[in-house]
Amino acid sequence: MNKFEKLNNPVWHALNETHEHFGIDYGGVKFYKNNICPFGGFTDITQTKKALNNYSTLTASFFVVGNTPNYDNTVTLNKTVICEQMILDRYIENEYHYKVIQLSKQHINELYDLVWLVMPGYYQKKTFDMGDYYGIFVENKLVAVTGERMQLDDFIEVSAVVTHPDYVRKGMAKQLVAYTTEQIISKNKTPILHVAEHNLSAIELYKKLGYTSLRKMTWRHFLRH
User: Which of 89, 98, 179, 216 stands the most exposed, by the fewest C-beta atoms within 10 Å?
Assistant: First the structure.
C-alpha cells in the first residue's frame, strides 16, 4: 500500500501510526479515545457491530469515517455527511496581515468555547492534544483558530477552521489555514483536510491556497440508542 492509499481510511491509519497512543483497538476496528475525538474506522466489517456497541458505552455520539459499518439497534444512524477530502497540491505563499499565535494549554478553555460557539458538536478539550493549534487575537480575545487533527506518518489533517461570527470575511481563516499549512510542511508532512461538499466557499478558499480534491469521504454519525 502506498501512502496515498492510506487516505482512503484515514482514521484507521492515523491510529496505526502517529496517533496510535490515542486509540481504542477492537480488532479490525479502531476508535480514538472518547475524550480525545469520537472518530472510528475499520478494516474488518465483521467486527463493526460489536465494536460500535462497545464504543457506544463510552460516548453517546460518534462518527465512523469511510465505509458503512454493520450495526444493530443499540445505536442509531443519525446523519451522513459527505466531505471533500483535499490535499495540498502546490504550496502558494500567502501574505500575512494578522499576528498568528501558537496556542498553549492556557488557551484550551477559550479555544473550546469558540469552537462550540461556531461549530457545536464533537470538539472536546482534550482534542487539543491531537496536534498544534494557532489563533488570532483581537484585543486579547481569541477570534479565529485553526489546528491539526488526524495525524499519519506522512500526513497531518488541518481542522477546526473557526472564526467568531463578529470577525468573518476579514481574511482570518485564509491566513490561519495558510499558516497551519506551512507549519505542517515544516514537519516534513503533507497537509490534508476534510470539508463538507456543500461548503463551496470553503472549498474555493482551500483551492486558492493550493489544495485539490482527492475523493469523497463519508462521515456517519451514530447515537447511542
Answer: 216
